[in-house]
Amino acid sequence: MSNSFKIQKIIGIFFIASLIIYLATSFLKTRLPDKNAIDRSLYNQPVQKTTETKKFEVTIGDLIYEVTPLYDYELNGLVVSDNDNEVWYSRFKKSDPMNTKDLCVIYGKNIEAEIYKGSKFYSEEFVCSFRTNDSATYAKFSSEDISNNHLLASRNDKAAIYKKLRKAKIGDQIKLKGYLAKYSIKENNGPAQLIRSSSTTRADAGMGACETIYLTDFNIIKTGNPIASVINIIFKCFSIFFFVLYFLMLLYPTGNSKNDKKETLDQSATPSFDDLLPTNLTNKN
After folding, report:
1. Selected residue with higher pLDDT from 39 and 263
2. Most buried of 99, 142, 208, 253 (most Cβ within 10 A)?
3. Start-to-end CA span in the chain (Å)
């Protein structure tokens, strides 16, 4: 077995091990916390007040957002699912770049009843869904203590709200402030290309029940599963590194194979003692 093959085998083992750890921690990092790890502020209801903020504009590239605040709004919640609008397949990545992320959160009675344990939450572009096979859990579920939030964050924001929001993930406990708002988007001085409004009550459900929030502040109160998150990032990098290294080893094998071949040829070319004897000698007995 050549040294090149041995190295490839070792790299392959490291890649598989790193991939397994990465996949395992991908599950662990989004595990929802126990009730005793929940910050007490998440038991409170969102705060909605009349706003004095007038309509304003935000420019991002060639797009102009016209934002109309409806109410001042504050919310503390546990992130149970999310939808990333910046993934390559998102329909809104280019047409609505300020709507960077949707966070589905629970609070109040759903925290107190701990309904999130044994339940599944799913986010799509417009909705957040709740599922459970436990009838007792379903009976405790409060549709007024869950919200799907379309979050608007300007990348030009001095407080780096955008960067904080991008870090938020399932299992995090968050606090946000901003405006329940409706907004429209136009390119330069053209007509509005997209118009979206916001729910202004927690009692509604279905399409149109989502809160659209222009953020003025965003913080992660507690990070969910911080150790698993760090390990996940590390082994994601390791997996990529060992995969690339293994692939390069296949394309450009290294080792002593050439030297081994040369040594074999040299040994076959070395004359034996019999070859050194004169060919015209005969054995006389």
Report:
1. 39
2. 99
3. 50
Residues with Cβ within 8 Å of 199's Cβ and at least 6 positions away in sequence, in order, are 180, 208, 209, 210, 211, 212
Count the neighbouring beta carbons within 10 Å of the beta carbon of residue 213. Answer: 25
- Would you state the structure tokens that stand for residue 234, as one six-digit string? 């590390």
Cα gap 145→109, rounded to integer Å: 6
Greatest C-alpha distance within the chain = 126
Query: Tens digit of pLDDT for each residue in 220-262?
Result: 999 887 777 788 888 889 888 888 888 887 777 665 444 545 5
Which of 72-76, 162-166, 189-193, 253-257 is predicted with the least confidence, judged by mean pLDDT?
Answer: 253-257
Buried b (16+ CB within 10 A) or exposed e, 216-254: bebebeebbbeebbebbeebbebbeebbeebeebeeeee
Return the amino acid letter for 182: K
Rounded to an integer, what distance in angstroms lies between the CA atom of residue 179 and that of residue 161? Answer: 14
Q: How far is CA 152 from CA 59, 138, 212, in A?
A: 13, 31, 8
Its pTM stands at 0.75
3-state helix, strand, coil in the chain (%, to 5): 35, 30, 35
pLDDT above 80 for 168:
yes
Q: What is the CA radius of gyration of the chain?
A: 31
For the chain, what are the domain ranges?
1-29+225-258, 33-224
**Which structure tokens are listed for 126?**
């417009």
